[in-house]
Amino acid sequence: KYIDTGRNNREVISWAFMIEPQKMLAKRMDALSIKRNNLEYRHTDSIPVDKMFLFQYMIGNTDFALNNRHNIRIFKYKDHKKPKLVLVPYDFDFAGLINTQYAHPTRKLNISSVRERYYLGRCRSDEQYQRVIEIYKQKESEIFQTIDNFEFLSNRAKNGTRKYIEDFYEELNKFNFIEKNLNSTCRQ
After folding, report:
1. Residue 57: how many CB atoms within 10 A of its CB?
2. For the whole model, what pTM was predicted?
3. Residue range 85-107, pLDDT digits in tens
4. Does residue 47 surpass a pLDDT of 80?
5. How far is Cα of residue 116 from the mean position of the Cα atoms in its chain?
């Protein structure tokens, strides 16, 4: 049950997801919303962007793009000491982790199911990849605690979510993860 404050406090009972309005998020971040297409990754800070790409890979999401702002919002901090753009992903219903009945992978990719992971990030050096991988390794127990403690998931859904993320960490810990899973599909 939620209340639509923009429409005379109309109450609605339904499944839904909420997206924070861009203006509110920009204000909270002390940033400006950028609504320009055809931006390039060179305009972004590489570590946060690479974290986002590895997150999208972890959850099995390929339904996003920077060049047309598809399922990504772009912000620029007002602080001149932070000149790079910030990408904020949203709308994960086509992610393998969510696995909605209507989700399907784009035909452009060589995958047959949204449950298959496909890395869409920029090609980086092994050292750069390793820095981002370490961030995810440090967050592993916190991620699993979040899944286990999330009260709105049934035990069955928690188990499925946990298994999907466990598979990610198994891949991540293999010696050839970077070459096999990132370099094989990264974007130049």
Report:
1. 23
2. 0.88
3. 999 999 999 999 999 999 999 88
4. yes
5. 15
